[in-house]
Structure formats: structure tokens, C-alpha cells
């Protein structure tokens, strides 16, 4: 099976690619080649940034709940530490 390669990150404003792009500190998903491009793109990015940040926060809270789950008949304690099982 061939290895899957992620595409190189690119600036959300001008699409320039690189390894040293700045990451949005809010959503941590969008990249920019400069602070100027980040500022210029903010009016477009703001609503999506807020939505992604909110979703990320909810997922992090759910992960903490799962990791701290004591276990019961429906779910093992900390399911993240369980070995993967293949379906028959």
C-alpha cells in the first residue's frame, strides 16, 4: 500500500506554500505566510475560526470525560488505552 502524503500547507490568503507558515492561534487549522495576510483575511475567516475553536473545545472536554471514565458494562475505563480490535 502506498504511503499517504498530506499536501503542503498553504497561505489561506494567497495560497503560497511553505513549511514556515503562521498558524491561526484561534482555530489552529488555517495557515498564513505573514501577519499582514492573516489580518487581511480576518473578516472572511472570523466566523469559521470561531466555529472550529468552539468545536475543538467541545471535543477536548468530551475527551477528558472519556479518559476519566471509570468504566462500566457499556464502555471500558479510558477507551483510548484499549488495543484495537478487528471486526470478524
Automatic annotation (TrEMBL):
<keyword id="KW-0863">Zinc-finger</keyword>
<keyword id="KW-0862">Zinc</keyword>
<feature type="region of interest" description="Disordered">
    <location>
        <begin position="67"/>
        <end position="88"/>
    </location>
</feature>
<protein>
    <submittedName>
        <fullName>Zinc finger, MYND-type</fullName>
    </submittedName>
</protein>
<dbReference type="InterPro" id="IPR002893">
    <property type="entry name" value="Znf_MYND"/>
</dbReference>
<dbReference type="Pfam" id="PF01753">
    <property type="entry name" value="zf-MYND"/>
</dbReference>
<feature type="domain" description="MYND-type">
    <location>
        <begin position="11"/>
        <end position="49"/>
    </location>
</feature>
<keyword id="KW-0479">Metal-binding</keyword>
<dbReference type="GO" id="GO:0008270">
    <property type="term" value="F:zinc ion binding"/>
</dbReference>
